Amino acid sequence: MECLGVSSGLDLQALSALLSTQQEDEEEEDLKQNATACLHLGPGHIGPPPKKDKEVSTTAYTKTNSKDIWSEEEVVEGSQYDNLTDPRPQPEYEIMLKQNVGTQDLFLGLSGKDPSSMCCEAMLVKIKLPDTEATDVFLDIKEKFLDLRTPKYKLGLHLPHPIQSQEGRAQFFSDRKELEVTLLMKPPMDFVNMQ
Fold it and tell me: In which domain of life is the source organism classified (predicted)?
């Protein structure tokens, strides 16, 4: 009886090679089609398609005047104090973060505090003001901005963390000619500081 199938191992290998090249050609064709389809995509194609029924606002705010290029919410706090033509130099300053640490924190670790800035309660800003008197200092504190002006110096400082602008204190040391501003930080809203 004559077998109509494959008769030897060589025939099997030849058939396998024939089928595998067809499969590779099909995969290459699929890759080419996917590549050409991806060429027409851009960042606007990410996510669900926009709704067509009504006008959809593409930004988080709505412009009141179509000629405005930004809204008031986008302007960084304290930018109104930036004056590039003011010749007064910026004084030397240093920002330090402070924590209230007790023995329960130091020895037992009961409060869960760590040395990171997330666990700090206050911010100390030391500003060196040589040849300045306490009566010459103008200080204005906002939530994220410190504005200091004297006849000789100008400092517009964007603070690294939001603070409680109505709390805090400032002290001028005449012997060192240094102003120390202690600001209470707003605690971050997380699972530890739920207030």
Answer: Eukaryota
Query: What is the rounded distance in angstroms from the CA atom of residue 20 to the CA atom of residue 26?
Result: 10
Is the sign of the CA dihedral 24, 27, 31, 33 positive or negative? positive
Strand, helix or coil for residue 108 = helix
Give the chain's mean pLDDT: 77
In one-letter notation, the amino acid at residue 32 is K
Q: CA 97, CA 116: separation in Å to the nearest integer?
A: 9
Which residues partner with 54 through β-bridges?
none
**Cα 57 to chain center, whole Å?**
24
Burial (CB < 10 A; 0-12, 13-18, 19+), residue 150, is buried
As given in the structure block, the two tokens for residue 73 are 């919410």
Q: Are 133 and 155 in contact (CB under 8 A)?
A: no
Q: Which CATH architecture has domain 76-184?
A: Sandwich (2.60)
Spell out the domain ranges in the chain.
9-39, 76-184
Query: Mean pLDDT highest for which of 55-69, 106-120, 161-175?
Result: 161-175
